[in-house]
Here is the input.
Amino acid sequence: SVPPQGGRKHPHQEFIQIDTTNVLFIVGGAFSGLDKIIEARSGSSGVGFNAEISPASERSTKDIFADVMPEDLLKFGMIPEFIGRLPVLTSVENLDKPALMQILTEPKNALVKQYQKLFDLDDVELEFTADALDSIAELALARGTGARGLRAIMESVLLGVMYEVPSRSDVGKVIIEKDCITSAAPATLVERVGETPKRARREKPSEEKSA
Here is the structure.
């Protein structure tokens, strides 16, 4: 049961009953520090006379988290009642550059597509070169921010041109190249050829009416 407006429960409050029979609960997170607990339990110990003992430094974070046990979560600070409701424990791989590139371009709501749609509202085409996308992924890896850092990088690169383009009816295309990412070079603005932008066509009737 949950409160109708959310928030914390109290005895004199009405509750809404929710059937969780067909609800799958997924608990995820970085769990910073859990790897140290797992290492302390199993990272440097071997079993049997011929067991190989590998230094903890040689094990990747993914391999360490693959050995997680309920007792590790208990030491991490979770209560037993909560741990008992998590029957399956698993770990995921760290994002590498190809994975970050896929996040940038492939999903239906990929970051690149979101910004392209934003520029399209002003009838301006937004293009990223392959080197630019590669540099964005590399920068996110270097910062250690993963997929969350991609938006921050994109925002810092496009912030200036996003303010400039709406006031420039002569701009038809914006090209983001590698230098825009690595050395904060300005984006390449390509002059519009031919048809009047949609923004100007929308503004014209209102201007005539006010006149």
About this structure: The chain has ten helices and three strands. Residues 34 and 76 are 6 Å apart (CA to CA). The first strand starts at residue 125 and ends at 128.
